[in-house]
Amino acid sequence: MPICYNHSSAFVIFALLTRYTINMAEHNELGKAGEEAVKNFLICKGYTIRETNWRFNKLELDLVVQKNGAVIFVEVKTRATNIVNAASVISESKVRNIINAGKAYLRLYNISQISMQIDIIYVIGQPDNFRIVHIENAVQPHNRSVRPRRH
Fold first, then answer.
1. Kind plus residue range of the DSSP H or E element containing 75
2. What are the pLDDT digits (tens) for 1-42?
3. In 3-state terms, what secondary structure has residue 87?
4. The whole model's pTM is what?
5. Residue 17: exposed, middle, or buried by beta-carbon count in 10 A (0-12, 13-18, 19+)?
C-alpha cells in the first residue's frame, strides 16, 4: 500500500521499492521506478489503474486510468534533476501519438465519452525521494468527440 504525504502543496510519495542501484540501465530503472511511484500516487488520489504501458501497433500509453467514470490517459516523464522547461520534455509528435493511442484505446474497448483527457505527470528526483507534479488536462485534443468503433 502506498504512503502519501502532502508536502508544501506538492504531493510527494515514498514508494516502497527495493534498493536502487546505479548501473548502465539507470535511465530505464529510474523511469520504471517513476511509473511505479505515479501509479501509487494516482491510487492515493482515488484513481483506478486500467492499463500500464498499453500498446497497440506502434502506439503506446504509459498509463490508462479511470476516475469518476472517465477514462484518462497519462504520460509519465521521470527525470533525476529538476525539469527547467516542462514544455520541451514532450514533443509535438509525442502529443500526436498519445492522442492517436487514446482514440485507438477508446475505439478498441468500445468506450464512448464526450472528450479525451490527457494528463502529464512529471517525476523528479530519485526513488527514495520523488517529487511528483500532476498536470491534469495538460493536452487538449482538437477532436473533442471520440466515438466507439462500429461492429
1. strand 70-79
2. 555 655 433 444 443 333 344 443 676 888 899 999 999 999
3. helix
4. 0.76
5. middle
